[in-house]
Write a structure and sequence with these properties.
The protein is mainly beta. It has two domains: about 90 residues, Sandwich (Immunoglobulin-like); about 700 residues, TonB-dependent receptor, beta-barrel domain (Maltoporin, Chain A, Beta Barrel). It contains four helices and 48 strands. The protein has a 22-stranded antiparallel β-barrel. Strands 8-13-14-11-12 form a five-stranded mixed beta sheet. The chain has a four-stranded antiparallel beta sheet with strand order 3-2-5-6, with no helix packed on it. The longest helix has 22 residues. The radius of gyration is 28 Å and the shape is globular.
Length: about 850
């Protein structure tokens, strides 16, 4: 435990940093004599052009770059008076240039541009590019365009549903997302710069509706020091504000019925979504809201109807209000509410409905964002509150029975927990500094306070053999309610130095301190981007960085979890049966990490600091204006990870949590993107390998702990996918129709073999599911009803080829059907209707 007397000292230091930034905020806010330029881009049909790149030139130099929002708008604030040149470009349109645009002091110049569709060549848009490709950061993430993601088969309703479209990201059979080979708790998730991961488990919470999203960016190597609290990747989401005109949409309002033997048998799924946005006060106050209701019954093919369905019921709402105090000052308030109830969680052949628990979740996030632009710089202040209330509820109090051929009884774990996180962020973006090139500095601080309380009750577990004989019994001691709180402080500085047109360098360092961990962590990062040829058609990027995980609060509560009393029965001689008690013990190891030189450890407390060191190299080349390719190699090694194992310490038996775990991830990615007048197509091939310790803490301290703690092994992790090909496209058809096909091929997930006592079995070769293949498509047609109203009908078909993609395997050596794969989802069709206003 940390020394409470140190906390005021740390907070005073952190507050001095924050107050200094705030003071500079108001000291420099007096200069309000500058001008602004507001640009609106339309196409020839008077439709807004989104994501158009706008370059602003002043006195012969490119001084700023931005992109248009979903209403085709962009704004340059705090400009010195004078004459400007505007260059605007967008994939599929001709580049447009306007000269001699006079901007006067104290006024807002409004400029409307009409972009013409390109007839010969298509302009290619590499995310974030400007006049010089190296003007963007060396950490270029993968962006998911909201409008395209909404059209794919399966119709994702949240961001989590869309993430598997990113190369290197897959969804595990249990529904969790594996990002670059790692589980969710190794990745960060931020919405408008606000951390929205669960403070207790580190896992992702229900995310905002897809209709609220402006951009989703997934970083595999974010060398930007502004990001922290991860060792794998970062999912960064920016939501969209209301437009200058009111807009309404109603998506998927009709239910999908269950059909059996040509008869309708109840409701299978209904996912209505509604979103609307517009001005409450013209040019001043904007409102946007998106809400969705989900009722989904997912059939498990390995079980018999009607006892084969997992049920999910949820409501997801995101509200955003933007107030334009002045052209330089914007206030944004958001509120996200996401109650969720799941029944029969992790239902499968080996765990029928009585063995599965229910999960009840209530989460909400409130944030207030203040942005002030002064003299080309921006001060961004964010205050957020994130609350979580979760319960895991077994279906009864019967003993849980584990057998090689399947389990029975009721789930053993019951838990109730509440947690909250209050976070304050200050980011200061300095105006560009000219010194041996252009420097773009950013500084920031973060203060957060987390707390949680929980009650946990574990019931007995019996391990049986194939004949039903009791081989082992696990009982648990009672525990007192758990209470924990923690304080974190972080500060960072980073610089994007554009040396010239051909070369740019990124450098930054992040300092983090977590009170319960008693460590001060230093995370340096460097990156580069350069164009070797005169044409700028080829860009080479790369970098190296050190990253640290934020430690979830359940790690510090491990010693208070129920202890185990294990009785192992000797069937030949009951007198030789053994009874052993396993206490809970936490033993950190000091100085084992390769990056320990970057950590300052205190002798008290947990002294935990799981970390990773990662580097990558990427080459991107534009073959033509409409066709570009890329190649990327990434290597990451993590250590100091939390693992749980059984050990004897001074003659006593313990379940021990150590920070000796390690893992690695290697990935080669090849990608291509081609556009033409009627559509575009993206494809990727990923060759990857990941391995690490199997007994990571989330298997036993997460929402649904495993009943058995086997001896730890270093093996292929669930995210180990040697080969994956993903191709998806969208293109127009005659009669106002469009089609969105998606093809995925990948290696099957690895799985572990167990024996009759439910322990891992040493394997002479890797065991893996068969390769996965799916061809999906969605075809849609729009029907104009009135001038401002339209209907869009669509048909989605998944697994068109009806390929056998098994969901389960008999993996216990004592099972008579050991090694047999079974159960899969066959071809499925779905009809949707969207209403647009």
């Amino acid at each position: 435990m940390s020394n409470s007397s140190d906390r005021p000292v740390m907070f005073r230091r952190a507050c001095i940093i924050v107050l200094t930034l705030i003071a500079s905020h108001y000291c420099i806010a007096r200069d309000l004599s500058s001008a602004s330029l507001r640009i609106t881009a339309f196409d020839e049909s008077n439709a807004a052009v989104t994501k158009a790149q706008i370059q602003l030139w002043f006195q012969g130099k490119s001084v700023n770059t931005t992109t248009t929002n979903t209403q085709g708008e962009a704004e340059f604030l705090n400009l010195p008076p004078g004459s400007y040149k505007v260059v605007i470009s967008r994939q599929g349109f001709e580049t447009t240039t306007r000269q001699d645009i006079m901007v006067n002091a104290g006024q807002t110049m409004k400029l409307t541009l009409v972009l013409k569709v390109a007839t010969v060549k298509q302009e290619i848009n590499v995310a974030g590019t400007t006049d010089s490709p190296v003007a963007q950061s060396s950490s270029v993430g993968t962006q998911l365009p909201r409008d395209q993601v909404k059209e794919i088969p399966g119709r994702p309703v949240t961001i989590i549903d869309a993430l598997p479209l990113v190369p290197g990201v897959v969804r595990a059979p249990n529904g969790t997302v594996l990002i670059y080979g790692s589980n969710e708790h190794h990745s960060g998730f931020v919405v408008n710069s606000v951390n929205v991961t669960d403070p207790v488990t580190g896992q992702f919470q229900p995310t905002v509706p897809i209709d609220s999203v402006d951009t989703v960016t997934v970083y595999k190597t974010p060398y930007l020091a502004q990001y922290g609290g991860f060792t794998s990747g970062i999912v960064s989401v920016d939501t969209r504000r209301g437009g200058d005109k009111w807009h309404y949409e109603l998506n998927d309002p009709f239910p999908e019925f269950r059909v059996r033997s040509a008869h309708i048998v109840g409701l299978r799924e209904i996912t209505p979504r509604v979103n609307f946005n517009g001005p409450l006060i013209a040019n001043r106050l904007y409102f946007a809201d998106a809400g969705e209701y989900v009722l989904r019954k997912q059939a498990v093919r390995s079980l018999q109807y009607p006892f084969n369905e997992m049920k999910e019921q949820s409501f997801n709402s995101f509200t955003q209000i933007d107030y334009l105090v002045s052209p330089k000052h914007i206030l944004t308030g958001t509120f996200h509410l996401a109650p969720l109830k799941k029944q029969f969680v992790n239902l499968d052949f080996f765990n029928p409905q009585p063995v599965t628990p229910d999960f009840v979740f209530q989460g909400d996030t409130t944030s207030l964002l203040d942005r002030l632009t002064v003299n080309g710089g921006v001060l961004q202040s964010t205050l957020s509150l994130n609350r979580v209330d979760a319960s895991v509820l077994p279906r009864g109090k019967a003993v849980m029975k584990l057998a090689p051929t399947g389990n029975s009884g009721n789930y053993f774990n019951e838990q109730h927990r509440r947690a909250s996180r209050v976070e304050w962020r200050e980011n200061f973006f300095l105006p560009p500094l000219q010194w041996a090139g252009t420097h773009n500095f950013q500084f920031g601080t973060t203060l957060s306070h987390t707390q949680f309380r929980a009650s946990i009750k574990d019931r007995p577990i019996n391990i049986l053999d194939t004949s039903g004989q009791l081989r082992r019994r696990i009982e648990f001691t009672n525990t007192q309610p758990i209470r924990r709180q923690d304080d974190e402080v972080a500060a960072f500085g980073q610089d994007h130095w554009q040396v010239g047109r051909k070369l740019a360098l990124d450098a930054g360092i992040r300092m983090e301190r977590q009170d319960l961990s008693r460590t001060l962590r230093l995370a340096p990062r460097v990156g580069f981007a350069f164009t070797p040829w005169a044409s700028d058609s080829t860009v080479v990027r790369g970098g190296y960085g050190i990253f640290y995980d934020t430690i979830p609060l359940n790690i510090f509560s491990f010693n208070q979890f129920p202890e185990e009393i294990i009785t192992t029965y000797d069937l030949s001689s009951p007198a030789n049966s053994q009874r052993r008690r396993y206490g809970r013990f936490t033993r950190p190891v000091r100085g084992h990490s390769k990056t320990s030189v970057l950590r300052v450890l205190n002798d008290a407390g947990g002294r935990f600091s799981p970390s990773s060191a990662a580097w990558n190299i990427e080459i991107e080349h534009a073959i033509s204006n409409s066709f570009h390719v890329r190649a990327n190699y990434l290597q990451s090694e993590s250590d100091g990870l939390f693992v749980i194992n059984r050990e004897a310490i001074q003659g006593q038996d313990f379940l021990v949590l150590r920070d000796t775990g390690r893992s690695f991830y290697h990935q080669l990615e090849l990608g291509a993107h081609f556009t033409w007048k009627q559509g575009d197509i993206s494809g990727s091939y990923v060759r990857s390998h990941t391995a690490g310790d199997l007994n990571e803490f989330d298997n036993f301290l997460g929402n649904f702990p495993l009943p058995i703690v086997s001896a730890n092994r270093f093996s292929a992790l669930p995210g180990d996918i040697p080969n994956r090909i993903l191709v998806w496209s969208q293109f127009k058809l005659p009669l106002k129709m469009h089609i969105t096909p998606l093809v995925e091929y990948r290696s099957g997930f690895p799985y572990q073999v167990r024996d009759v006592m439910q322990n891992y079995v040493a394997q002479t070769h890797e065991t893996r599911f068969p390769s996965y293949f799916s061809l999906d498509a969605r075809i849609a047609k729009e029907f104009k009803v009135m001038k401002n109203h339209a209907l869009e009908g669509s048909v989605s078909i998944t697994n068109i080829t009806n390929h056998f993609n098994p969901l389960a395997v008999h993996s216990n050596t004592a099972d008579p059907q050991f090694g047999r794969f079974f159960a899969y989802y066959d071809r499925r069709a779905r009809i949707d209707l969207d209403v647009k206003f």
